[in-house]
Write a structure and sequence with these properties.
The protein contains nine helices and 13 strands. It is of the alpha+beta class.
């Protein structure tokens, strides 16, 4: 029997019990599932930044994350085949309960004595830790810094953690145009004269717009204030000062404390929380989990689609695909019921096309 990687991965995410005789299986399945979820979340983050038109090494990042997803998918497939097939463990099965739609062959678990697994609990605990790590890594400081003359003399917005680190997506030029298609301040990109160094009102207005777009706001009672760097940095700034226009000289850097918005925190909760429940299905439509935040949709026991859910900061996205590999998107919507409601009509259209081909 041949089982595709997609089916094997889907089987792992349907596991709810394993035998206590196989604690190593529990641990390895949980680890592999966690890695796959992390890879998919990373891929979602890259795609969201690309859609926003942010500067990024998009091709390199996409390739790296796709390779990670494929590697983890293969690891899950290995766990379900040669390495762990045995009495009381995993075995291939193609049976289907009476009245259920025909589904591709999958794998299930036969626990000995009805012992419950800790796989789901472990997965939940680790996602909780991942969420906590994400919250801990949120930027807490926003900085506007003037560049040195040889670097163009413009200004950059940087969002930093308490430790001073900055992710690439939080390094934003304020005085130059971004990539084609990038979402810009509706009031216009700030390119006016800089009159008060980094403390220019136009720069702060542009920075505030970017902060809101990224899901941050000023901390209560906080305001921009000049920041003095290290002694060596200040000495270098002093050396360059005569080459700068008057308005650029001071302050060269300003900072303000920031916090994540409620919308941003809610997005993190969804990204590292359980997948949402599907709404009531239309007559003749059934749904079965096929991966992290994805379902195989079947209509009238003969035609299949893939439905996926992706959390987004400014509105979650549901997508309907024509193939299991999710390479042919048919439609996007803000809710699952919008897409599920179209399934009967899509099936009718497909039958009409088939009939036309037969007539010819």
């Amino acid at each position: 029997m041949t089982v595709s990687d997609e089916q094997r991965v889907a089987a792992v995410h349907r596991l709810s019990v394993t035998s206590e005789r196989h604690p190593e299986l529990n641990r390895r399945v949980a680890d592999a599932r966690l890695e796959l979820v992390a890879a998919i979340l990373a891929m979602d983050a890259v795609e969201e930044r690309i859609q926003a038109g942010e500067k990024t090494h998009s091709l390199q990042e996409q390739a790296a994350v796709e390779l990670a997803k494929n590697a983890h998918a293969q690891a899950l497939a290995d766990l379900l085949t040669a390495r762990w097939v045995g009495p009381g463990a995993l075995r291939p099965t193609s049976h289907q309960p009476p009245g259920e739609p025909r589904m591709p062959p999958s794998f299930d678990v036969s626990p000995a004595g009805g012992e419950c697994s800790q796989v789901s609990a472990t997965m939940t605990e680790r996602l909780v830790r991942m969420r906590a790590g994400q919250l801990a890594a949120l930027p807490t400081i926003a900085e506007i810094r003037m560049a040195y003359p040889l670097a163009g003399g413009g200004a950059t917005l940087r969002l930093m953690t308490a430790a001073g680190s900055t992710a690439e997506r939080y390094l934003i030029p304020l005085t130059e145009r971004g990539a084609a298609g990038r979402e810009n301040d509706p009031a216009g990109l700030y390119l006016d004269a800089i009159t008060d160094g980094a403390n220019t009102e136009g720069l702060k207005t542009a920075a505030r717009w970017h902060l809101m777009r990224l899901g941050f706001n000023y901390a209560r009672g906080a305001d921009w204030a000049p920041h003095t760097g290290s002694a060596s940095s200040e000495a270098q700034r002093k050396e360059w000062a005569p080459m700068l226009p008057d308005g650029h000289r001071w302050p060269h850097t300003i900072r303000v404390a920031i916090t994540a918005t409620a919308e941003h925190l809610a997005y993190i909760d969804r990204a590292y929380g359980p997948a949402p429940e599907l709404p009531d299905l239309p007559a003749g439509v059934s749904a079965h989990p096929s991966g992290p935040r994805s379902w195989q949709i079947c209509y009238a026991n003969h035609r299949f689609w893939q439905l996926s859910y992706r959390p987004r900061m400014r509105g979650d996205v549901w997508a309907l695909y024509a193939d299991p590999a999710r390479t042919k998107p048919l439609a996007w919507a803000a809710s699952a019921d919008e897409l599920l409601a179209t399934i009967p009509a899509r099936d009718a259209e497909a039958q009409d096309r088939t009939a036309v081909r037969k007539d010819h």
